[in-house]
Structures are given as structure tokens and as C-alpha cells.
Amino acid sequence: CYSIDELGCKLTLKFHTDPVKTDKDSLLLDADCVEFPLILRNVVPGDRFRPIGLNGSKKVKRYLSDKKIENDARHLYPVITSMDKIICIPGCQLDDSVKCTSNTKRFLQVCWSPAPDFDESQD
To answer: In whole angstroms, what is the distance from residue 16 CA to residue 39 CA?
Structure first.
């Protein structure tokens, strides 16, 4: 668990050997498709990724706009990168390259949630 105090959020990463149910605040990806370390960072102009189901890439800014996220709230949506490639927008969308398939053996759950009750003793 990581507290992101500037955003008032908590990022939790959990490994699983079987698929788990996700909700609106979590994403499940193929752990074997990412390389560590993972980096959580702000969106920079020109950032692109390939949302699942989209044939091609899309600018992160445009994706957030299409999701009806107000311009002044977009800073609350960072990205996670692996090897300088965006693999997800936590709480929103995975990149197609890390989606789970029938061949997925290890799962990584990415949870993004408000952190008012975050307790650092959980580390």
C-alpha cells in the first residue's frame, strides 16, 4: 500500500495466482506482462496508451475527456508506467498490452481509492 497524500488517495498492489473480482476502483492485469519497478507519475502532454478494445492508441488527456472527467480534476488521474510505457490509469483503464487472457498465470490487482483511513502500519 502506498499513500499518495497530494491526491488524498491510496494505491494498493496485490499479486494473485487466480483471477479476483474487481470493482470500479481496481484493475486486474497480467503480472507477467510488466517489468518492475512500476512508476506512478503525473500525465505529461502527449502521453498515449492503448485502451483495451480500442484499435490503436489514444492520448491520455483525450481518454479522460471522453470519460467526462472535468479538466480541473484530471490531475487526480496519474498513470502507472513499466519500462517507460503506460500500463494503466489507476481506477480507470488498462493498456491492452497488460490485459489478462486465458494464458495469464499471475495476476496483479491495482487498487486506487481515497485514503482518509490509510494506516502506514499496513505496509
So the answer is: 20
74 forms bridges with which residues in the sheet?
A: none
- DSSP string for 18-76: S-----TTEEEEEGGG--SPEEEE---TT-EE-BTT-SS-EEHHHHHHHTT--GGGGGG
pLDDT of residue 114: 78
Q: Could you say which DSSP state residue 17 is in?
A: S
- Say what the pLDDT of residue 57 is: 97
Q: Phi and psi (nearest 5°) for 96?
A: -55, -30
β-strands 79-82, 58-59 pairing: unpaired
pTM of the model: 0.88
